[in-house]
Amino acid sequence: MIPSDYPLTLYHGDSYQWLFVLWLDVAKTQPLDLTDVVVKAEIRETSGSPIIYALTCEITLPNTIVMVLTAELCRTIPVAGHVWDCQLTFPDGSVNTILGGAVSVTPDVTDSDDIITTTTATAAEPNKAPRLQAVPRRR
Q1: Which of 3, 4, 80, 87 is the most buried if burial means most Cβ atoms within 10 Å?
Q2: Rounded to two decimals, what is the model's pTM?
């Protein structure tokens, strides 16, 4: 089964919570029983690369997955393109990846990197105005 495409569009440093309600039928009358199912979701640079972040996932019976990304941890995700997916492991050992897609992270403005201004001048240019150099600093 191919996972449903669900892109995550994140704003760097914000908190997120997603609720995924799973059904066995299109009419949404038969909930998928998630009793004793293990759920995990990961964000990576590419498939097979080291995990950037393992999302917190919990199951609310009978058929809801709650996935959380805290502001603190979202702040650590590099601003670039990534991929993610959500995988279920059933009590019989079968594994089903239900969702996945691209992850895009937009840089934040408020509480973003500070800019420290430094000046430099050389002895060979004593009468020239000093050059300014911006150096980003993370809080």
Answers
A1: 87
A2: 0.77
User: For each of the chain's 139 residues, which pLDDT tens digit applies?
Assistant: 789 999 999 999 999 999 999 999 999 999 999 999 999 999 999 999 998 899 999 999 999 999 999 999 999 998 888 999 999 999 999 999 999 999 999 998 887 764 333 334 444 444 444 444 444 444 4
Structure tokens at 26: 């299109």
Task: Please answer whether residues 107 and 10 qualify as being in contact, where contact means their C-beta atoms are separated by less than 8 angstroms.
Answer: no
Residue showing tokens 């300014």: 132
Q: Phi, psi at residue 79, to the nearest 5°?
A: -75, 95
- Number of other CB atoms surrounding residue 86 within 10 Å: 23
Q: What percent of the residues of the chain are helix, what percent strand, and what percent coil, each to the nearest 5?
A: 5, 50, 45
Please, are residues 133 and 117 in contact by the beta-carbon 8 Å criterion?
A: yes
Tokens encoding 10: 């994140």
Compute the C-alpha angle 69/71/74, nearest 5°.
Answer: 65
